[in-house]
Automatic annotation (TrEMBL), chain A:
Region (Disordered): 256-282
Protein name according to UniProt: ATP-binding cassette domain-containing protein
Keywords per UniProt: ATP-binding, Nucleotide-binding, Transport
GO cellular component, one term: plasma membrane
InterPro entries: AAA+_ATPase (IPR003593), ABC_AA/LPS_Transport (IPR051120), ABC_transporter-like_ATP-bd (IPR003439), P-loop_NTPase (IPR027417)
Chain intervals with Low complexity compositional bias: 258-269
Regions that span the bilayer: none
SUPFAM superfamilies reported for this sequence: P-loop containing nucleoside triphosphate hydrolases
Signal peptide limits: none
A Pfam family recorded for this sequence: ABC_tran
GO molecular function: ATP binding; ATP hydrolysis activity
Length: 282, 425
């Protein structure tokens, strides 16, 4: 067990965005989280990474290096329910964003390098040494650029990349934190259909040596690469199983195909949960 | 064995290369330093040539040069936090004021526990540390906010400090005019070693006559100029060092995208706090230099919000987030001020001198040319700087140095270094 949530709940006023979710993820697993817009997927990520505080419930994480955050329980299990975003990151929980969230005016290499530097302990507090003297940061950043196919763009300013390249960089920054668990929030959002294949390849490659939790609307991608698929609807975890079983599930099809009533549709808490979802399930 | 020697040789070459590269990248620095070092004697020579009237009118005099130095350092410290973390410190004058007041109060024996005879360099640094602590206290509250709210709350703190010192009878007999330095002249140099210390001040400072037998006289003002310049230079290199360190890169990451900086594992609050502390430290150094040179400090010249506003304006003109830019912005401002005031030469006396009486008294729509000069030229630097500021915001938003860097595609140092490298081959 790498990650587990127990009765995880988040309410915004009268709206329940995430509703008593019990979820576990094993090491090395690639699990997709799907669900209609407003199902609470991104909110779920925000709870896991400490951006939002849960209304109720508990989150446990078993990182490689539990010492990075003091609140350690037995067996290397850490309760990260109240951890701040930087603490979850130092523990090995890294995320990418649905809306590209990079460091725009610095170079592509620096985008990744600064993320590498973050988990190099006290390096960031070395005031008197030139940053170029830390060769290992650059070497690691370069190998990550290689992995996400941006090695040739290292010196370009990040904001000048194409949308597809920015999506890859988005993953690269998350990858640079040496994560135990990678949370990818719609990595193919806005990516042209020709380029989806390349992003998928990167995800598959990354999942070789990382556990991955993937929010994705493109069902070809989800069904193609997931070990397991979890379905959220109106904040509730309504199903989780192998891709084939999920594809056949009636409950899932109901959730997607008008299965939710107008009241339910109003639970649009995932305000930024990208418009057209391109659902092709069933 | 061969391979071993090969790598050592390669290493030796690498080291040399690294040193040369370092030197090359500092060529622009050296040029600027040289310019500031040789300017006063050249200015002095020009005043003895037939061009003296022009030199006096259009070139900055030494008093303005010194103001360039400490105000430039203050503007750079403002840019250090504002330009590199994106948090506009609108209360920066408070740190400048702390540095200024602290050295005056210590010299006057008004600070309990610190003897009046403590060397200036030490009190200056202690004042800087005090400002560092004050920044942590202000930051602990202010960094809960961001954007314009951060700017407003820091401004609020500075105004509180301003009102406090303006009405605090302890600091001066007349607190609204501020304290004056009554102790011995502050000295820059190695504490307790008289031979390597230089006294500051317009009148009471050290002066040297016939230096090295070259017939060059260095007045007290000029001595202060070089001594203050040395401190400003050291402070600049220290700040530059910080910005080029891993810590500085985190500051830039916070400016670029604070949410993401937190998400990749930075406790952004403490990075902002420490960066704020450093910028306050150097602001206090600038304040100490100002107070030492002018032998006193008044609330309106230190804690007042317009002091911060001047730093903001020269930072925009020079280029925000460039560190050296605000210094050049300050130089530009002081130069403009010199031309447009009649304190040391200036345009108004020059025009009055060269224009024939007939022109001066000529009447245009009820106003004479002489009146016009008095109204729109003499002492009107803030007016013209305001116009320049508006033009910069509209047309040169990246400022002087920022635009140069955009044009070169790199910092000036790296660019010049690269060019020199090519010529060497």
């Amino acid at each position: 067990m790498l990650l587990s949530t127990h009765g995880l709940t988040k309410r915004f006023g009268g709206i329940t965005a995430v509703d008593a979710v019990d979820f576990t993820l094993e090491e090395g697993e690639l699990c997709s989280v799907i669900g209609p817009n407003g199902a609470g997927k991104t909110t779920f990520f925000n709870l896991l990474t400490g951006v939002l505080e849960p209304t109720a419930g508990r989150i446990e994480f078993s990182p490689t290096d539990p010492a990075a955050y003091g609140n350690e329980a037995e067996d290397g299990v850490v309760d990260i329910t109240d951890a701040a975003p930087y603490e979850t990151a130092l523990l090995g929980l890294h995320r990418s964003y649905q809306i590209t969230n990079i460091f725009p005016t610095v170079s592509v290499l620096e985008n990744v390098r600064i993320a590498v530097q973050a988990h190099r302990g006290g390096d960031s507090w070395r005031f008197w040494r030139n940053v170029n003297a830390f060769d290992d940061h650059v070497t690691e950043a370069e190998s990550i650029l290689q992995r996400i196919g941006l090695a040739a763009e290292a010196d370009r300013t990040a904001e000048n990349l194409s949308h597809g390249e920015k999506r890859n960089l988005e993953i690269g920054i998350a990858l640079a934190g040496d994560p135990d668990l990678l949370l990818l929030d719609e990595p193919t959002a806005g990516v042209s259909s020709e380029d989806v294949g390349q992003v998928t390849e990167i995800i598959e490659d990354v999942s070789e040596d990382h556990a991955v939790l993937l929010i994705e609307h493109n069902m070809d991608v989800v069904m193609g690469i997931s070990d397991r698929v979890a379905v959220l609807n109106q904040g509730e975890l309504i199903a989780q199983d192998e891709p084939e079983t999920i594809r056949e599930s009636e409950a899932v099809q109901r959730a997607y195909l008008g299965g939710y009533d107008p009241d339910g549709a109003a639970t649009g808490t995932d305000a930024d949960d990208g418009g057209e979802s391109g659902v092709s399930a069933g | 064995m061969d391979t071993v020697t090969d790598t050592t040789a390669a290493h030796a070459r690498d080291d040399e290369h690294w040193l040369r590269e370092y030197a090359r990248e500092h060529v622009p620095h050296l040029l600027v330093i040289a310019l500031f070092a040789v300017y006063p004697p050249i200015y002095g020579l020009l005043l003895r040539t037939p061009l003296s009237a022009e030199a006096n009118a259009f070139l900055p005099g030494t008093t303005f040069l010194i103001a360039m130095l400490f105000l430039g350092l203050f503007a750079m410290s403002f840019d250090f936090i504002s330009g590199y973390t994106g948090y506009l410190s609108f209360g920066h004058a408070a740190f400048y004021g702390v540095g200024a007041y602290f050295i005056v109060l210590v010299a006057n024996g008004d600070v309990p526990g610190i003897p009046a005879g403590t060397p200036f360099v030490i009190t200056m640094i202690v004042g800087g540390l005090l400002a560092f602590g004050l920044a942590l206290a202000i930051g602990a509250v202010s960094f809960r906010l961001s954007g314009v709210y951060f700017a407003m709350i820091t401004l609020g703190f500075a105004q509180v400090a301003y009102e406090l010192v303006r009405n605090w009878n302890y600091v001066a007999v007349n607190p609204q005019d501020g304290p004056t330095l009554s102790g011995p002249t502050p000295e820059i140099g190695i504490p307790y070693v008289d031979s390597v210390s230089i006294a500051l001040g317009r009148l009471a400072g050290d002066s040297f006559e016939n230096v090295l037998g070259l017939g060059i006289d260095i007045s007290a003002t000029l001595t202060s100029y070089y001594a203050i310049g040395a401190v400003v230079l050291l402070s600049y290199f220290a700040m530059q060092r910080l910005i080029h360190s891993p810590f500085g890169r985190v500051m830039i990451a916070i400016r670029e995208n604070e949410e993401r900086a937190a998400a990749i594992g930075y406790n952004v609050f403490w990075y902002k706090m420490v960066a704020f502390g450093f910028s306050a430290f150097f602001a206090a150094i600038a304040g100490a230099l100002f107070a030492a040179f002018s032998r006193g400090a008044s609330p309106d010249e230190t804690f007042y919000f317009l002091v911060t506003a001047d730093a903001l304006i020269v930072t925009i003109v020079g280029g925000i987030g460039t560190l050296a830019g605000p210094f050049f912005g300050t130089a530009f401002y002081e130069w403009l001020e010199d031309i447009l005031s009649s304190e040391q030469g200036g345009l108004a006396p020059y025009l009055r001198g060269i224009l024939p009486d007939g022109v001066l008294t000529a009447d245009i729509a009820g106003i004479t040319i002489a009146d016009l000069i008095n109204t729109v030229v003499d002492g009107r630097a803030p007016l013209f700087l305001g116009i320049v500021f508006v033009l910069f915001v509209l047309f040169v938003p990246n400022g002087l140095l920022g635009s140069v860097r955009d044009r070169l595609g790199n910092t000036v140092g790296k660019y010049v270094g690269g060019r020199l490298e090519r010529y060497r081959r």
